[in-house]
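We emphasize that the prediction below concerns an isolated chain of 192 residues; any contacts that depend on oligomerization or on bound cofactors are therefore not represented. The input was used exactly as deposited, without trimming of termini.
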Amino acid sequence: MGLCEIFQQQIIEAMNPVTNLLQTVQHAHHRRILENYRRHVYLEMAGEFEQIVAPDMMVEEPVYRINWGTPIVLRGKQAIVDFYTSAQQFVMWNSDDQIAVADWGLADELTFHFIATGHILRDFGVQTEDPDAFYHYTTKQAFIWPYDEQARLIGEHLYVDMTSAKVERLNTDDVVTTDWVQQTAKALLRTL
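Result of the prediction step, given as a token string:
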């Protein structure tokens, strides 16, 4: 199996920890939070950003705190849609999740993966040899996602452990395309 196929399999399996947790969690509110989270991730991968900010998925005034490169705070649904739209330039997924759910929301420590050009990684503060080449960039991250009493997302708090950062240059054959991710995510959404 080549590197591209390994990445594709990891992308397909990215939400397996949530699916597995749903098999054991009985608390109705916790289940709704996990289902919202899984759907959110698939919608994000599919490029269906307007559905992410729909009234049944997200509160009216969400706040995202993102510590990728230069830390930013995003307020409001339009800022969230704009952020996700800009992220369509690269492929991202998570693995190695250690996820927990509670009444207030969920927390997850994981490995976060990007496939992006050197140009894009520079925006994250990552230096590469060739700005036009593609790279696989990983870091350990912690996500805190608070939810309201209706299991709607209040925001995202994303924290990066830069001491864990790894950058690997990819051959052209190893690159997973955003089109492949979108089509795959749309198929995964249909299974929910």
